[in-house]
Write a structure and sequence with these properties.
The chain is mostly beta strands. It contains 2 helices and 31 strands. Strands 1-12-11-10-9 form a 5-stranded antiparallel beta sheet, with no helix packed on it. Strand 17 and strand 18 form a beta hairpin.
């Protein structure tokens, strides 16, 4: 059906699938049931794998062509010995690595063909298409028993009406028809595109639709970030981030994606640039953590040193009976102090670290201490997010590899996901400025919270060279982690 939100739809057309296997170092897991996999479980072993975007990576001598490293999970967490490197020069991936493609700017995942192996979406918003500069492209890499294998381009229904297609990505059943749909952000007259599912290795294109988002979203910036998850009773809700014409943040919640009246399906949220959805209080409704790293001089909705606002969900979307929780580094119980330039809230992630069923929150502050960076972790409970028992981590924390140095930007991206399969999320952190290249850290989750040592395996770190990404130029390794 035509997506009621959107003003335009294209007819279906058969697309060719490129299915040449990728080179990787994996062994097939044991017997596997063909049920839909969780996002980012590419080899179906029950563990979440990690996709790391490096959109500034040099590929085949082309600066900022971009790359994505995939590191697979294991019983002890992430295993860099089992990994896949994906670029547009990888056999089977559509296109060719070219300067400024920025392949890996955004990633998303779902088991699109419900074969029991999650698939990976990668955005390259700088791709030039048929002479159109920065038209953008998106590709799907298919999951398989031995990991990622084969690729296919995602159609761009509006190549003349938008630019930077793929600058943000999400997946969900937005039409509530049982098929997963692709949600792709861009800028220009059409800022948000929906590719209707099912979308498989060889299926015909089921049609696409798109729209310019209503004011105050500016088409010059487009949809800069997307989060998807169940906030109300709907299967998939979307948090849509953009900017006003003066670059101030604007954020809305799409509560019912198949309702056509804008006033029915949009709820205003606190302005921010990134978000994450998870059930903090275990009431069955997703809650939303929204990060706004900016000073009030940069964005009136910001705060000194940056802030995070937690909005609680309910049957109608935002639960208006509950006051949002606003967090800064001046909040009682939060370590540190709010200082200009800390960039607290640059990135946020919700996940269950200690296995108690309540989603916990990780917050990146990559500007802390002359941009050395830090990460703060707060824990969920039946009454909501707690400001007691809060943890803070830097590269100077005992057990964390490395040393805090100006410009590292530790906390540029954060992720809470279960890479070990023990039902507790690890804390993964990127520092995009580490040694001028970027690097990633993974700290284990435990019943007591995030740990940097002990029998659970402690903390590990690795840089682009470990996973095959060139360190020429500034690869910006870790610009994207699992979204």
């Amino acid at each position: 059906m035509t997506h009621p939100l959107l003003g335009r739809r294209l007819p279906a057309a058969l697309l060719a699938a490129a299915l040449t296997p990728l080179a990787l170092t994996l062994t097939a897991p044991a017997a596997h049931a063909a049920t839909a996999a969780r996002p980012y479980d590419f080899n179906g072993d029950g563990r979440t794998d990690l996709a790391i975007g490096a959109p500034g990576a040099t590929v085949g001598g082309k600066a900022k062509a971009g790359a994505v490293s995939v590191v697979y999970g294991g019983s002890s967490g992430l295993k860099t010995s089992t990994r896949t490197l994906i670029t547009q020069n990888t056999a089977g991936v559509p296109g060719t690595a070219e300067a400024d493609d920025a392949f890996g700017t955004a990633v998303a995942s779902a088991d699109l063909d419900t074969d029991g192996y999650a698939d990976l979406l990668i955005g390259a918003p700088g791709e030039d298409v048929d002479g159109d500069t920065n038209d953008g492209t998106v590709v799907v890499i298919w999951g398989a028993p031995s990991g990622l294998s084969g690729a296919r381009s995602v159609p761009n229904p509006f190549d003349t009406d938008l630019d930077r297609y793929g600058q943000s990505l999400a997946v969900g059943d937005v039409e509530v028809d049982g098929d997963l749909d692709l949600v792709i952000g861009a800028n220009g007259p059409v800022q948000l595109a929906f590719i209707n599912g099912p979308f498989t290795k060889s299926s015909a294109f089921q049609g696409g639709s798109g729209s310019g988002f209503p004011a105050p979203y500016s088409s010059a910036y487009g949809i800069t970030s997307l989060s998807a998850g169940p906030v109300n009773a709907w299967q998939t809700n979307l948090v849509v981030h953009g900017r006003e014409s003066d670059a101030d943040a604007v954020t809305r919640l799409v509560t019912e994606p198949n309702v056509g009246n804008y006033t029915d399906w949009l709820q205003e949220l606190p302005a921010g640039y990134v978000s994450s959805i998870g059930d903090i209080d275990k009431d069955g409704y997703g809650d939303i953590a929204i990060g706004n790293e900016r000073e009030t001089s940069e964005d009136p909705a910001g705060a000194k040193g940056g802030k995070v606002t937690v909005v609680y969900g309910g049957p109608a979307g935002v639960d208006s009976s509950r006051t949002p929780l606003v967090l800064t580094q001046d909040t009682a119980g939060v370590p540190g102090a709010a200082e200009s330039g800390d960039r607290f809230g640059s990135h946020v992630s919700l996940g269950d670290i200690n296995g108690d069923g309540y989603a916990d929150l990780a917050v990146g502050a990559p500007g802390e201490n002359a941009a050395a960076g830090s990460v703060t972790v707060l824990y969920g409970s039946a009454s909501g997010l707690r400001t007691t028992g809060v943890q803070s981590f830097t590269q100077n924390t005992a057990g964390v590899p490395g040393t805090s140095e100006a410009g590292d930007r530790f906390g540029a991206r954060v992720l809470l996901a279960d890479h070990s399969g023990d039902r507790r999320a690890e804390l993964t952190v990127s520092a995009t400025g580490e040694n001028g290249d970027g690097a990633v850290w993974s700290l284990r989750g435990a019943t007591t919270g995030v740990t940097t040592g002990g029998t659970t395996g402690g903390a590990t770190s690795f840089g682009p060279g470990t996973t095959g990404v060139s360190t020429a130029g500034a690869p910006a390794y870790g610009t994207a982690l699992n979204s």
